[in-house]
Amino acid sequence: MAASSSDVLQGTLDLLVLKALSLAPMHGWGISQRIQQLSKDALQIGQGSLYPALYRLEKKGLVASEWGTTENNREAKYYRLSPAGQRALAAEVRDWRRFVGAVDLVLVAE
Predict the structure, then answer these.
(1) What pLDDT, in 10s, does the model give residues 33-61?
(2) Disulfide check for 81: which of 3, 45, 85, 110 has CB 3.0–4.6 Å away?
(3) What is the CATH number of the domain that holds 26?
(4) Domain count, the chain
């Protein structure tokens, strides 16, 4: 069965969050800023999408969290990739590259 567009978008967001957290533990705002920075401002993740994704990933055991203090001396929940999250990231990257390759085959077809 083919994935729906919402499944693809949710999976893509999860992949981006896992990748951002593979670079360093971060709080939610930091994750959205890192994704925006790495995409050269092409991707902007809103809080309404980011926090449900973090909750979903935490529930699956792919990320862990703990409360800490930000650079601005504010309390924030910091997220980090779990060992299961590291394995999931590697698998998701492989799947994403396979998906992009398949889409590219269709786009270049004559």
Answers:
(1) 999 999 999 899 999 999 999 999 999 99
(2) 85
(3) 1.10.10.10
(4) 1
